[in-house]
Amino acid sequence: MGLIKEPLHVDFEVDPRPLTETERKLISAFIKADKAKRKKRVDQIKGSQKRQSRIKAA
Predict the structure, then answer these.
(1) What are the domain boundaries of the chain?
(2) Using one digit for the tens of pLDDT, what is the confidence trace for 8-36?
């Protein structure tokens, strides 16, 4: 991964503080929902590919 160049007159600052329990739960819930969403999308793609292969074979 490459370096990110800072635009002129913009400074990126990072606050290395520990997460609160609420923030940790929110992030965890978001990740879990995102994984479920991506899995559903992959399953739909795989299902449509199976249907297309059955149509071509017939």
Answers:
(1) 21-58
(2) 888 777 778 899 999 999 999 999 999 99
